[in-house]
Amino acid sequence: MTRNSTPLEAEIRNQAGKRETRKLRNSGRVPGIIYGNKLEPVLISIDPLHLNKELYKPGFFARIFEIEAAGEKHQVLARDLKLDPVTDQPTHIDFMRFSSRTILTIDVSVVFKNEEKSPGLKRGGVLNVVRHSVELKCRPDSIPETLSVDLTDLEIGDAIHISAIKLPDGVSTAITDRDFTIATIAAPTIVVEETEAEPEEDVAIDEESASEAPESPENNESKEER
Q: What confidence tens digit (pLDDT) does each residue in 13-47 have?
């Protein structure tokens, strides 16, 4: 399944520079820029509420956006995002244009299905995810929404490699020199808790009682001989 473009409204801004971008942020807008595809850059600003709504959805940087600004539509991908170090809110965003012939390099999320059908997981095994996303190369109209991994019949000790995932036509991995691992079914970790040995109780010896203790028969015999 490939992605449809996501609409995102923006306004044109006519001036650049730190002072102007600061004014925009103070007025409640996020400054940004659209560039690429051998066209002139376009300075824009975006409503932070609309931007945050899309930002926290999965695959933000692998999603095609259709930005409409001043009556013109731009097919773009988010390429860079700056966040405020204190509030963690967006302070600037870059979008890149592309053509239908552009080969994109993007990260696509990996999703796992049928965990309940994995004998290894049923027996207490742990799904150890090595890669939560995979870098792919493809044209804009071939971007997969996700990469799906089927865990059916997998046992403890099994590994899922990229070769086990069927990629759509026209899509390839950026890493081509090895069959890299996506995830493994690991054995459960058994934690053995060591119990501390209880300290031996000190035996208090009553000196007076010890002196009154009856003598052994051997001692009595030796006295009689004397």
A: 988 888 888 988 999 999 999 999 989 999 999 99
Q: Provide φ and ψ at 136, rounded to 5°.
A: -120, 160
Which residues 6+ apart lie within 8 Å of 130 measured at CB?
180, 181, 182, 183, 184
Give the pLDDT mean for 204-216.
51
Q: Burial code of 103-115, b = ≥16 C-beta within 10 A, e = fewer?
A: ebebebebebeee
In a domain, 212, yes or no: no
State both tokens at 55: 């930002």
Q: Is 216 part of a structural domain of the chain?
A: no
* 19, β-bridge pairs: none
- What are the backbone dihedrals phi and psi of residue 111, each rounded to the nearest 5 degrees, phi first? -120, 145
Residue 198 falls within a domain, yes or no? no
